[in-house]
Every structure is written in C-alpha cells, then in structure tokens.
Amino acid sequence: MYKLNTLAAAVLATLATTLAAPATAAPDLKIALIAGKTGILETYAKETETGFMMGLEYLTGGKMEINGRKLKVIVKDDQGKPDLGRTLLAEAYGDDKADIAVGTTSSGSAIAMLPVALEYKKILIVEPAVADAITGDKWNRYIFRTARSSMQDALAAASTLKAGSVAFLAQDYAFGKDAVKAGREALAATGSKAQVIHEEYAAQNTTDFTAPAQRIFDALKNKPEPRLLQIVWAGPNPMNKLADMKPERYGIVLSPGGNILPVMKTWKNFAGTQGTIYYYHGFPKNKMNDWLVAEHSKRFKAPPDMFTAGGFAAASAVVTALTKANSGDTEKLITAMEGMDFETPKGKMSFRKEDHQALQPMYHFKIKKDQKNEWDLLELVREIPPGELPLPVRNKR
C-alpha cells in the first residue's frame, strides 16, 4: 500500500509540475528594416525608421506583438550602397531568419536587393525607393511596395499641367532617370498638351548649377508658355540656387516636387508656387494621421514628414499582412497581401494584385503666403485620388 501511494504521489506531482509549467512561447516574428542611415539620404532613412517604429506601436496598441507573437525589428544600414544592401538583405533572411523585410532608401540599392528576395523566397516591402523598375521589369513575386513609384509622382504632377513647355532637372542615377522617363509618359497618359523640351541630369553631389541651369534656360526661353522647370531631386534641393539665377527673366517658372519639411521651409519666397507631393502632415484627415501628427509633435517638437508617413505605411502593411495571414510563412503572406487594403496616415492604400504596387492618393499643393508657424508651409489645392492616376502595369507578369 505504501509503494502504491508513493507511486500515485509521484505521478500526481509530475502532473502538477507539467500543468504549472508555462506553455512554450510562440517564436518572435522577425522584421528586417534596411535603410541608408549614413550618406546623402540619411535624413530620409531616419524618418522612415521613426515612422516604421511609431506605426508598429500604434497598430499593436503598444504591445509590439501580433496574434500573441512578439515583433522583433532588426535595423541595418546599407549606406545607400547597392552591394551592401544586397549583402545585408541576404544576412537578414539567412542569418537573422527574418520573416519579412522592409527597405530601402536608395532606388539603386533597392533594385540590387530584389533578386535576393527571389533567391530566399521571402517578402520584401519596398519603402521608400521609388524607381519604376522596382515594380516594373526588375520585379518578382516577393516584392511589394508601399512607397509611391516615379510614375505615380509623375502622373500627379502631369494632372496639374494642361499645356506649355517643360524641362527637367534630375539626378544622374536610377531615381532621376526613372522620374524623367515617367514624366514624359505621364503627360501623354493624362492627355496634357505640354511638350518636354529638355532633360538635364546632374551628379547627386552637384553644388554649382550654373551650367545646367543655363542650358535649361536656353532650351526653354523661346518655347510656348507656360514654361516650367520641373525639379526632381533627392537630398539637398537646388531650388533656391536656381531661383538666384532669375529664371523669371525668361518667363520660366520653377516647379518643385514635394520634399522634406526642412527643405520646404526654405521656399517661403515662392508663395503661390504649385507642385505635387506624396504627403504633408496637414492634408489627410483621419484618426491615424491625427495620432501621428500629435504624437510626433509631442516627441520631436515637429510634425511628421513625408518619409515618416511612408515608414508608418510600411508598418501598417506588415501588421495587416501578418495578422491576416496569421503566419510568417511567405506563401500565406503573398496570398494575404495581393489585393490587400490597409490603412495609412494618407488613408487607404491597396496592393495591386498584378504588380504589388500600393495604389494611393497624392496631393496638389500651393506654397502658402501667410504661414502661421515654421511648419505651416503648404495649402491643399486638392487630393488626387488613385482612380485619377492611370498607373500602367509594367512587370510582364
């Protein structure tokens, strides 16, 4: 009897220990964020990271978990270098076992990363690189993009120009060349009668714009009005230097694309000048943007910028996809993400099934004359809905 009781007690003790032991925790969901945090685009990269982390915070209610699984974000700096971007993405997928990756800042680096996603059969959400080739001829089925494309930028700009003469000043690499090519095509796609007269490309680190500006002025000065110099530039913007050369002598109007807030703060002398932009903190009216503007202003003493909103949008895509798929499995994620709607500070975005490009609104702005404070820079002319941006599918899927 003693032996039987002893055995029963041992069994009960083992059972009690087993029941008391915590269940094995589900493995972390790992997200790699690759950005050019050093180099010419470091401001964009840091904004993207800030927006991405704030987006995860907002969308998970501060818990940083999805369906009971903790989120682990692995941040890597590719310095805007294509070879390094490729290496770091392979490291993220191979060594770090990332379930999904987001990146990167430079279009050149992003394009170099695309084959790595294909090799490892893992999702890469491209943010904020805009080159059309990313969802065009360089695309593969593992690539999704929350960032707008060069063509979306161009279609938005073209929608505001009905006639006249256009010259482009752009940087001499993938971003600039794609943007100008898109600009030409967008004018045709929107039915504009404006003619592209000249294309001028300059190195990313150009500081003296005298020679390129004079070539643009000479090309435009006798052409039909309005005469527009479209500036497509990432990093320190040459608008003020071009203005110092007095293009108005030739009836030429400067047309900036949207830029980051510190750059647009220098445009106060250009009140009334119009352009188009991906995001400006005062334009969207929704709960998510209200939170982002209020919280960012509280933490950083300034409103969120366009790349902050982009990082937040990428976070929303990640959280929506992982929640919908209830898995980090690539095939389940692709199924969840194709055609997926997700909320962002700009409002709803949708991943188009054909090429995984996020369809999204853009904004037509005017530089304010009467600015209430240092960040009160732009006036909304109108929101341009995605339905008015006839974005072609070019990935030959």
Give a structural overview:
The chain is α/β, with parallel strands linked by helices. 38% of the residues lie in helices and 21% in strands. The protein has twelve helices and 16 strands. The protein has a six-stranded mixed β-sheet, sandwiched between helices. The chain has a four-stranded parallel β-sheet with strand order 8-7-9-10, sandwiched between helices. A hairpin with a 2-residue loop joins strand 2 and strand 3. It is globular and about 75 Å long. The protein starts with a helix and ends in a 13-residue tail after the last strand.
Number of strands: 16
Number of helices: 12
Tell me the fraction of residues in β-strands, as a range: 15-25%
Strand arrangement within the widest β-sheet reads 2-3-1-4-5-6
- Give the overall pLDDT as a whole number: 92
- Helix share, percent: 25-40%
Order of helices and strands: HEHEEHEHEEHEHEHEHEHEHHHEEEEE
The low-confidence parts are none
* CA-atom Rg in angstroms: 24 Å
Major sheet size, sense and barrel closure: 6 strands, mixed
What is the overall silhouette? globular
User: Gap between N and C termini, in Å?
Assistant: 76 Å
Oligomer status:
single chain
Determine the structural class based on helices, strands and strand pairing: alpha/beta
